[in-house]
Amino acid sequence: MPEIAKDTIALLSYLLPGFLAAWVLYGLTSNPKPSQFERVIEALILTFFIHVMLPVAQGVMMFLGKHVYALRPWDSTSQNLCKLLLAIATGVLLAIYTNNDGAHKWLRKLGLTTRNSFPSEWVGVFSRKITYVVLHFKDGRRLYGWPREWPSQHDKGHFYIQEPSWVLQDGGQISLENVDGLLVPSSAVKWVEFVDTPEEPQDA
Fold first, then answer.
1. Going along the chain, which residue ranges are E strands?
2. Residues facing residue 4 across a β-bridge
């Protein structure tokens, strides 16, 4: 039994950089967290990538230590610190490419895929379409404004609409004076209309 516990701790320690990279990735993106099994698979993949990069990072550190400045000798502590930094950097880079559709944009140009890196069409449209919107409520009302915040899922969360104004049946608007914004539950919205005016509010 002690041997099993020891092996389990060793395995978790080995996978820790991968779990840390995945934690940073999901903390900086709208991607839904996968199941426990999928998290372990992701941790294995990310851990493999980090361990592949570790000798490269070690070589760079050794070169800098020899020719520029040496912070400390390369030992187990330095190696663990390097793994930590690589894990954080990996998670941040993956988050950047996920949030701006970087990797998939390049792959689409090569004709390798038609997909994007966003977790859903909802997130993809709101991430790329920077413009005013009209929220169509289920009760027939319409609200015009700038979506400063918007939910990552269409059926959960809230919109934060700045410069809000109610849209009348004849197309006129009633501006809400002295109101910084309205917090609207997404469950009350039937659909979203994107207005073709890509200018952000002046106080953004």
1. 133-137, 142-149, 158-167, 173-175, 181-185, 189-194
2. none
Q: Which residues of 70-94 are buried (b: 16+ CB within 10 A; e: fewer)?
A: eeeeeeeeeeeebbeebbeebbeeb
pLDDT digits (tens, 9 = 90+) for 41-82: 998 999 999 999 999 988 888 888 787 777 778 888 888 899
In order of their start, the domains of the chain are 2-109 (no CATH), 121-194 (2.30.30.100)
- 3-class SS at 70? coil
Burial of 52 (0-12, 13-18, 19+ CB in 10 A): exposed
Residue 9: partners with Cβ closer than 8 Å, 6 or more residues away: none
Of 124, 195, 127, give the one whose Cα is nearest residue 165.
Answer: 195
d(CA 111, CA 84): 35
Q: How far apart are CA 126 and CA 119, in angstroms?
A: 12
Chain centre distance of CA 18: 17
Which residue, 155, 129, 132, 130, is CA-closest to 143? 132
Question: How many beta carbons lie within 10 A of that of residue 46, not counting itself?
Answer: 23
